[in-house]
Known about the structure:
The structure is a homodimer. The first copy, chain A, is an all-alpha fold.
Amino acid sequence: MSHTLGLRQAQKQKTRQALLEAALELLEGQSLSSLGLREVTRAVGVAPTAFYRHFRSTEDLGVALVEEALGSLHPMIRTIVSTAGDSDERITRAVELIARHVDAYPSHVRFIAREQHGGVRPVREAIRNELARFTEEVKAALVTDPMAEGWSDDDLLMLAGLYVDQMLIAASLFLEALEGPEEERQRVTRLAARRLRLISIGRAHWLD
Amino acid sequence: MSHTLGLRQAQKQKTRQALLEAALELLEGQSLSSLGLREVTRAVGVAPTAFYRHFRSTEDLGVALVEEALGSLHPMIRTIVSTAGDSDERITRAVELIARHVDAYPSHVRFIAREQHGGVRPVREAIRNELARFTEEVKAALVTDPMAEGWSDDDLLMLAGLYVDQMLIAASLFLEALEGPEEERQRVTRLAARRLRLISIGRAHWLD
DNA sequence: AATTCCGGAGAACAGTTGTTAACTGCATGG
DNA sequence: CCATGCAGTTAACAACTGTTCTCCGGAATT
């Protein structure tokens, strides 16, 4: 299946990746809808027209970025939901993993947070679809928990969505705290953990 | 106090308002960081240079839009938190009010959702500050509730933030459902209500 | 009634944008 | 080894951008 790409295609994917990375960096200070194609090629050190060999437009590039950014998030969600331990331990571990992910891929997180409600429809939809897949995955993990007994499918999906949204909010808060003092990070950690704890308590008493 | 503005200043505020409204409309299809000053003046039917009489830049205009958009939201929050009745009634009423607000000011909601994490720092900060004020207000309302007995200040702020974020998420969902079928709006209504209900349950058992 | 103030218009600027066409050189497949 | 394919280049285009300076006309002030 995985042919060792020819020299030709290898070089192509290399500049394609360079374009994506340059775009991600430029997007730290603006939104996708204002990102110019020339701006990106200039940052890479390539002719403007080379852009068209890889993407039809910056919109197109944005959609590709969604896959890349949320692709890196996918394994993390798996790790979080498959963590063992009691409720508090799992929450602490989840927040910790989120913080670490933001440290590792800050521009990915920024891009998703920014473009989730951004000005480019196809990108918004790509993010929405991808997040819906995450939510389904979280829901599937919740079903296996004995606590899920008696829960309707709809309610489980609601809970999963609540968790996913909280994770995104937490990630966004960690991002803002990235260049701040360590104490700010600690504050965010505690806040996010307490939010998740309250949701877990609500979950435990949902069927009362 | 309220002088009837001179003809001069009245006309000025009129075109200023026209600029804000035109910008808000243009921002339905893009982000603030890609909004051009000429674009706005063209939509109003005024010379590009007239823009400078009112704003230093589109960033400046964006900050002004934050006040306008969240100003309209302020009284709604007051209404929600001051509503009487048991938990379920209050939740139903709150979701209803949110839906109605989105119907009345869709572009305001869109602007806030989009620029909360958007590419223009001063605007992000203005939104963050304004939302923090809302959260404080919600917290102040929560304190008056007998259920708040034994709660720490920090936990109350956490809960208030949770509520505010959920309201914003609900508003954003209603916005997406605006041009969709009625059944989609109903789905969002039920989803938002159940989310708030779960949070309220968690709140009721927080001190266990 | 004369003077100042000021919101807006007009023209011009240098710089940027997306897109087109025709090209070059090198890896690829016959 | 030769012919084809194709990633990237070069040059040029019309259209657009933010910003400056100069000016106009009418409201505001005295």
